[in-house]
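Residues determine shape. We examine one folded chain.
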Amino acid sequence: VQLQAFGGGLVQAGGSLRLSCATSGRFSSSYVVGWFRHPPGREREFVSAISWNGRDTFYVDPAKGRFTISRDNAKNTVYLQIHSLKLEDTAVYYCGAPYEKYSHFFVWYHYWGQGTQVTVSS
């Protein structure tokens, strides 16, 4: 499966942004997709994930309430909506997928797309 994240940009604090992750390849709609971010000077961190059919979602605690993950398998796209952006949301955002179809959220993510930069200004 191939993934490509896009939709980042420069946003003022308090604003909103919707990131998209386009998936392609055979059975791409059968994979869990996770969003990760890599803030400057820090390790890459897990943000959110969604099951292959969109029925189950997961958010790390800092993302709860401001981040919403969703997917449209007809469009082979997974979205990450971010509201009330904070300076600490500045990072390169990546989407990834596990090696196996129909996987759980907490596994090793094997497939990665190129990231998209999100910069939040004050």
The mean pLDDT is 95. The longest strand covers residues 17-24. The radius of gyration is 13 Å.
